[in-house]
Write a structure and sequence with these properties.
The structure is a homodimer.
Chain A (H helix, E strand, L loop, with lengths): L1 H7 L3 H8 L7 H14 L5 H8 L4 E6 L5 H15 L4 E6 L4 H13 L4 E5 L5 H9 L4 E4 L9 E4 L2 H14 L5 E4 L7 H16 L7 E2 L8 H14 L5 E4 L2 H14 L8 E3 L5 H5 L6 E3 L2 H16 L8 E2 L3 E3 L6
Parallel strand pairs in A: 1-2, 1-3, 3-4, 4-5, 5-11, 6-7, 6-8, 8-9
Antiparallel strand pairs in A: 10-12
Chain A binds a DNA duplex (16 and 16 nucleotides) through α2 and α4.
Chain lengths: ~325, ~325
DNA sequence: ATGAAAGCGCTAACAT
DNA sequence: ATGTTAGCGCTTTCAT
């Protein structure tokens, strides 16, 4: 900035103002400054700006995996709301591991973000403490935490699966299995499995048809393998609910390879309303968890909190059951 | 740090050393300092550190879309190599738009990253200039740029499709169509289409069976719609190559809905070796572009360049044709 | 192994 | 509308 100030014959402070929109500055002065900056190949230094002004334009976000369309949608929603207001998302992946999440949160907080959104409501004790002490808005997403740290934008994974179970039972399925969600690392998957078990029990049905599909993220391939085991070990199963549409699609393909007709011989339900569930043949019954909306609402909530307008309270979304051809 | 220094009776400089691994410091002094820091709820300020030391631990990365498994794999590869060395990825999405890329690059450079990796070799003139002037390693990926700005880690999209065309022709297909890649925004998709046209012409075949599938990213649904048009408008087509596995899978489902047998009545090829291509029934013939490897090699190249060891030159990867059931 | 002084590049606060 | 002064929280550099 000093160079530009010298070149244009103004003070560094004026140069500073020229780069900040909404500052009191003569239009010609600003144009001359911006022109000089471009000629000098000047690049504004956010680091110094952030240090002096004691604020950054970072919003920290942690998600379990980068390679998941649901979380990508959430980040997309967040990003569209926050980028428009000049914020930069600082993204980290926990790989479905709370220890990794703790490390990540610690590092993200060192960058002094203005707010932080984390996926899920389960954290290490130290991570929780770090978030509590951070003195910035903390939003937990994709869950309804028993004891929220700050705010949350989520839904009940257990209730969402219960909704599908209720539907399956209502249309006549009785011997219903569940694939995935038993790895304790993926708490949302585990919640879905717990919801499945509780719902079946409430209907007086056997809730022991549980197929382990491995550690999250559960792939299409693992869904297919799990369906293979289900068909071998519990061949009288009438319907299966999978922890996600990806594993559900894998399960569907395994049925196709074995000549098992879906839904006649085996009904399949997924979770997450991924694109594939809407286009596969047959299309998959699933639950839309409003992934993008979670991001948009989180972004809006963050903006409100930063503006001191505590208008939005916590947000509990209602997942939507989508019945398609893979079940009746 | 001053607070911690006071509390432990040392100078702020010693506190600073306690947080930096590999510094000359008494073990007990360090332990006392770290303990005091934890008690005070101290969080290290990267902003100040970065300003004074004139270096950050940011590596800037731009990708067209967050919601694409191929780019996610590349970021995953980059991340695994660079996080292990303490770097933080600063990620931005261009939405397949070079103007947006320019804005993004400008903002990313303000954070003074140590290196920047961008997807593709086509940029606005100003973006190119910004990268040239940045005085940090610049890596272009997913492409072999005609005039690289700095380094590149990529492959020829045109040649990769040519390889599939050669195979299709060798096994007897003659009336071959292409879906996607006509939106000029997605330069890699356009390169694939150009490669398709050139290859067909070299075989003396008609290269006019081109179906527009809309602006990138091309979804499964758009692939299905495109296949619908292809079957209606050019019903004697024997094989189709799609710009990605996602559109190829959509095309496959459209065949299934219409009772068109794949590959007997219509062979299908995709691109990118997405998980779905390996598990769908039939499985999809595709091209593995080594997405994760692009990220890993880019990360390794960046580390070498930052260490001043110019050992790796540019990297041109060889995409691999994978023939599966959707073609013969 | 530790400390003292100086300053990274901006901008808050105040002045004109 | 513009300028002056001081300082954000660290780390470089030099000293002991």
């Amino acid at each position: 900035m000093a160079d530009i100030a010298r070149k244009t014959g103004v003070s560094p402070m004026t140069v500073s103002r020229a780069f900040k929109s909404g500052s009191l500055i003569n239009k010609e002065t600003r144009d001359a400054i911006l022109k000089a900056a471009e000629e000098l190949g000047y690049v504004f230094d956010s680091t110094a700006s952030n240090l002096r002004s004691k604020k950054t334009d970072f919003i920290a976000v942690t998600i379990p995996s980068i390679n998941n369309a649901n979380f990508a949608d959430t980040v997309g929603g967040l990003s569209s709301v926050l980028s428009a207001r000049g914020f930069q998302i600082l993204l980290g992946y926990t790989n479905y591991d709370v220890e990794e999440e703790e490390r990540l949160i610690e590092h993200l907080l060192r960058r002094k973000p203005q707010a932080i959104a984390v996926t899920g409501g389960k954290h290490t004790r130290r991570a929780r403490k770090l978030l509590e002490n951070a003195k910035i808005p903390v939003i937990e997403t994709w869950d309804v935490p028993a004891e929220p740290i700050g705010h949350f934008v989520g839904f009940s994974n257990a209730k969402a699966v219960r909704g599908m179970v209720d539907h399956f039972v209502a249309v006549g399925y009785r011997r219903i299995a569940f694939i995935g969600g038993d790895a304790s690392r993926d708490t949302r998957g585990t919640d879905r499995r717990h919801g499945f078990i509780a719902a079946l029990k409430d209907h007086g049905l056997d809730a022991s048809r549980l197929i382990d599909a491995g550690a999250p993220p559960i792939s299409m391939r693992e869904g297919a393998n799990a369906m293979g085991r289900l068909l071998t070990e519990l061949p009288d199963t009438e319907a299966v609910i999978c922890v996600s549409d990806l594993s559900a699609f894998g399960a569907l393909t395994e049925c196709q390879r074995r000549g098992v007709r879906v839904p006649d011989q085996m009904a399949i339900g997924g979770f997450g309303d991924y694109e594939i569930g809407g286009i596969s043949v047959p299309a998959l019954t699933t639950v839309n968890a409003h992934a993008r909306q979670i991001g948009e609402r989180t972004g809006a909530l963050i903006l409100d909190l930063l503006n001191g307008e505590q208008t939005i309270a916590d947000v509990t979304l209602q997942p939507q059951l989508i019945v398609r051809e893979s079940s009746r």
